[in-house]
Amino acid sequence: MSLRPNILILDQDGGLFTEVWSGLVTALKATAAVTFDYQPTSAALKLHSRSFTTVLVVKPDIYFAAAMPNRHLRDQVRDFAELQGGTVLFCGTFSSMTRPTTFNLYFGSEWQLPWKFGDYHRTTMTLNPAFRVSTAENASFNFDLDAADLESAYSQKAVHVKGALRMSMLYVPTEDSELESLVWQPSPINDLTQSPTVFAACGKGHVGFLGDVNGEIGTTKTILALSGLSKGTKPPSVSSGEASPDAGGWYCAACGKQELRTAAVQDEGFKRCGECQVCHYCSRICQRAHW
Fold it and tell me: Which of 51, 92, 145, 148 has the fewest other C-beta atoms within 10 Å?
C-alpha cells in the first residue's frame, strides 16, 4: 500500500478557514495526510524535516508578520517550491485578508512574478484551453487538463489576478461573462485578461493563487487537481533539504539580484523596507530607484 501525500496547511485546525472551506478540508483528508500548523517556527521545522508535497497558505497574518520567525517561514515556503520541487497554493481566506499593495510587492519581489491584485467580483469562469503547466525542471509533476476532474465552468466570487501570462490562467472569463449580483443588474466584464486561478512554475516546483472567497465546489476540485490528488494528476516528487547553503536568499525588489543565505545569516544580507515590511533591497540605490 503506497503512502498518502502529505499536505501542510498554514493555519489552526478549527479556525475560520476550516469553517468556510469545510468541503475542501474533508476532501483533502480523504485523499492525503493533512497537517495544520499556525506557529511559524514549528511550521518551518515541519516543512524542512517532513516530506510534504503541497503547502496551502490560507491566511496572511502568520505569513506576512515582520518578526524573524515569520520571515524564516516565508523563506522556507519559497524554497519548498523553488529548490525542493513542491507545490505552494495561496488560497482560502488569503485573498480576502491580504492588502493589494502587500500582494503586489510580495509576488513581485519574492516570487519574481508579474501577478498584480486585480478586480473583486462574482462571475462565471470557464476552463482555459490554453492553460499549460510548465515542468521544465520537475518532470515528476503531472497535470492532464483534459483528464483532470475539473468543472468546465462555474460561478465564483473572487479576487482576480492581472498581469499573469495567458498560459498560467486555469480559469478565464469569456465575452459572454457578466458581473453577477443579487442587487445590481448584470453587466459585461470589462477586463477579460484577469483570472481568479493562476498557476506557474517556480524553479523546480510550482506556485498558484486561487482568489475564490466562498469555497465553491469547483475551487475544491481545482485545489485537489493542482495538488496532484485527483484523476489525471500526480503529486510532485519533492526533495528534502536545501540544494546549497548559499541558495534561497531574498530577491532585490528593484534589480532582481538574489542574496546568498550565508550573508543573511551573518546579518550582511539584503535589508527589508521599513515602510512596507515586504520588499528587500541589495542597496540604497536600488531602494531609491524602486520607490
Answer: 51
CB–CB of 110/78 below 8 Å?
yes
Q: CB-hemisphere CA count at 13 Å for 180?
A: 12
Query: What is the 3-state secondary structure of the chain?
Result: CCCCCEEEECCCCCCHHHHHCHHHHHHHHHHCEEEECCCHHHHHHHHHHCCCCEEEECCCHHHHCCCHHHHHHHHHHHHHHHCCCCEEEECCCHHHHCCHHHHHHHHHHCCCCCCEEEEEEEEEEEECCCCCCCCCCCCCCEECCCCCCCCCEEEEEEEEEECCCHHHEEEECCCCCEECCCCCCCEECCCCCCECEEEEEECCEEEEEECECCCCHHHHHHHHHHCCCCCCEECCCCCCCCCCCCCCCCEECCCCCECCHHHHHCCCCCEECCCCCCCEECCHHHHHHHC
Query: Residue 234's pLDDT is what?
Result: 80
Q: State the virtual CA torsion across 103, 60, 83, 162 in degrees, nearest 10.
A: -30
Q: What is the pLDDT of residues 118-157, one digit of tens each?
A: 999 999 999 999 998 876 554 556 788 888 899 999 999 9
Task: Look at strands 197-202 and 205-210 and give their pairing.
Answer: antiparallel
- Cβ-contact 37, 45 below 8 angstroms: no
Q: Which residues contact 225 (CB under 8 A, 6 or more apart)?
A: 143, 148, 149, 150, 232, 233
Q: What is the CA radius of gyration of the chain?
A: 19
Q: What is the pLDDT of residue 93?
A: 94
Separation CA 85–CA 204 (nearest Å): 4
In degrees and rounded to multiples of 5, residue 126 shows phi and psi of -115, 145
Q: What is the pTM of this model?
A: 0.83
Label the pairing between strands 153-162 and 233-234. unpaired
